[in-house]
Amino acid sequence: MLVIPAIDIRNGRCVRLQQGRADAETVFGEDPAAMARRWAAEGAKLIHVIDLDGAFEKKPRNMDVIRRILAAVSIPIQVGGGIRDMGTIEAYFEAGVARVIIGTKAVDDPELIERAAEKFPGQMVLGVDARDGYVATDGWTHTTKMSAVDLVTAFERTPLAAVNFTDIHRDGMQTGPNIEQTRRLAQTTSIPVVASGGVSNLSDIERLLPLGDVGVVGVIVGQALYRGTLDLREALALCDRSGGQR
């Protein structure tokens, strides 16, 4: 299982929000590229980058910062936030991004992610952010009537790299991941699933490991790393040992 550090960018800085709320922000660094170098040095194999300004304003706002991250590390990064058209998707891939995450437009314009996945097979990620099981869009400010399971099922035949599944109630709260909801979602699809939201410590990673049997291939971690309740090297070592035993 991959342990994927998250870098959320707002106003050019590295921040974390609680439950995606703009008024619940903590700044953890002025230089997201330096933060990316730190996680790469500690062994990360993929970094999850979100343009929060883009998510709230519905168009990319931190392309320059993301370019600096790309220049700072050699490991792959995946990017989401405010991506609403093919031009933006192409621009990110041309800049060197390994994966592009589509969330809101997967609900509003499913053909966009289908066309992008056909053009960039195995490089598009479906971002499924759920509140009480229902998909939230527009920077998590709007909750739809579409269930997370229904959204994922709609893209079952699309050549996606992964589904990033976030339980919004747990995101940034360090209350533990939603194991059962993540398991149920993974069991409904053949697309690899990456869990997100709520990880607090090494025990939470340990609890997620058995979900590898149903297709959960990674976990995104943020607040726990920044607050020091989870050590990235220890988490990576745990997953490596687990992989060797399986």
State the gist of this model.
By secondary structure, the chain is of the alpha/beta class. The chain is built from eleven helices and twelve strands.
User: Helix/strand/pairing class, anyone?
Assistant: alpha/beta
Low-pLDDT residue spans: none
Nearest-integer average pLDDT: 93
Quote the distance from N terminus to C terminus. Answer: 11 Å
Helix amount: 25-40%
Large-scale geometry: globular
Question: SSE order, as H and E?
Answer: EEEHEHHEHEHHEEEHEHEHEHH
Question: Count of helices?
Answer: 11
Could you give a short account of the major beta sheet?
A: 8 strands, parallel, barrel
Strand arrangement within the widest β-sheet reads 1-4-5-6-7-10-11-12
DSSP strand count? 12
Radius of gyration: 16 Å
Strand proportion, as a percent range, falls in 25-35%
Polypeptide structure, described:
The chain has 246 residues and is of the alpha/beta class. 38% of the residues lie in helices and 29% in strands. It contains eleven helices and twelve strands. It has an eight-stranded parallel beta barrel, surrounded by seven helices. Helix 1 (32-41) runs parallel beside helix 3 (63-72). The longest helix is centred in the last third of the chain and has 14 residues, at 232-245.
